[in-house]
Amino acid sequence: MHLLSLHPSLSKRIVLVLFINISALSPPPTAMAEESSARTIFSVSETDSIREMKLVNRDRCEINVFDGADYLEIEKDRDPYSPVEWILDISKGDWNGTTPVFEIVFYDKGAGVIEPELKVGTGPNETTLRPSRAASFTRLNSMRERSAYFEFDFDDSHRAKQETVQLRISGLQYLREIIIHPSFDEEDWKKAKESIPKKVEPLVRLERPIQLVTTAGFNSKGTPDTLDMELEMVDEFAPLAKVLGFTSIESYVRWNWLEPETEGQFDFHLVDATVDRIKKHDLKWFPLLVVGSAYALPDWFKRSQENVGFVCLEHGIENPIQSIWSPYHKRHVTRVLQAFGKHYEPMGILE
């Protein structure tokens, strides 16, 4: 699943497309491996004649100055179904086997999600590449310069499609420069994630505050193996939720996470990790407990005689979702809710 597709509703649909010489942007793999430093490939301070990336729709932009530096501001979208677009054509080159990281330097005013993509090839051969990894990609109205980081993975399947490449960026309002890195190691990604602002303020404050709940990167069908990735998404989207005025983060809590081995043996460590991450962002938690759905049933319960699903009286077809009239189901729901409340109510995290 595309990392940035989890919350499209939070993204301002502004598309930035730039024209660039691919041979200058990305050397062949051997040359790329020898290159150890980042290179600026677009800068507002440079003239069109020396830029490696030529901005085409310049007439739809204006220069804005923040903290003494020039930034290019694109006109604002007026129709969410017809986004503002700029286009950049990239001449033929060889990116096969490379994983370049684009660093987009921007002024962080307003809120939204920055989402780039690369169009490789044309017509029936066109392929859309989305980031294989990203960090610091939400706009949080911190009123300072920041960087967003996006890695693209070029494998051999794109070898015959590289006559034309386009870079598109949506959700970006103010741009100063674009830097390309040959690749990032784990220490680089750690620094990129640490650059996300920790303290943010809501853009809007209600005169009569109410509880406002949203999601922030959790997968309702996630597994213990996906938890680390989901927590990274919380670090991206929880600050954005706070900037937009939300007061709490919703996440699914499944029975088979809480009581995986046997009845009465509760294990809260997976959910505790979620709670700790939400608490770090000074938000409340709105848990959605799922006890009766088929995908939430523990294996030990599935094997028991108490596993009684819905049955169609007309056709005799059984559904593994637990019947709300089952006395067994009611007993387990009561047990799980009591254990859950006893564990989390004293923490003061519940919305």
Compact overview of the structure:
The chain is of the alpha+beta class and 351 residues long. The chain is built from 8 helices and 19 strands.
Shape: elongated
Q: Count up the helices.
A: 8
Instruction: Output the structural class.
Output: alpha+beta
Please indicate the percent range of residues in DSSP E strands (runs of 2 or more). 25-35%
Radius of gyration: 24 Å
**What is the terminal separation in angstroms?**
29 Å
Mean of pLDDT: 83
Provide the CATH architecture of the largest domain. Answer: Sandwich
Characteristic key phrases:
351 residues; alpha+beta; Jelly Rolls; seven-stranded antiparallel beta sheet; 21% helix; elongated
Task: Describe this structure as you would to a colleague.
The chain is α+β, with helices and mostly antiparallel strands and 351 residues long. The protein folds into two domains: 3-194, Jelly Rolls, CATH 2.60.120; 213-347, no CATH class. The chain is built from eight helices and 19 strands. The strands form five sheets. Strands 2, 4, 5, 6, 10, 12 and 14 form a seven-stranded antiparallel beta sheet that branches. The radius of gyration is 24 Å and the shape is elongated. The two termini are 29 Å apart.
Chain-wise SSE layout:
Blueprint: E1 15-20, H1 22-25, H2 29-34, E2 39-43, E3 53-54, E4 61-66, E5 69-74, E6 101-107, E7 111-113, E8 115-120, E9 127-129, E10 133-135, E11 138-140, E12 145-151, E13 165-170, E14 174-181, H3 186-194, E15 213-214, H4 227-243, E16 248-254, H5 255-258, H6 269-280, E17 284-290, H7 299-302, E18 309-311, E19 318-322, H8 327-344
Parallel strand pairs: 15-16, 16-17
Antiparallel strand pairs: 1-3, 1-13, 2-14, 4-5, 5-14, 6-12, 6-14, 7-11, 8-9, 8-13, 10-12, 18-19
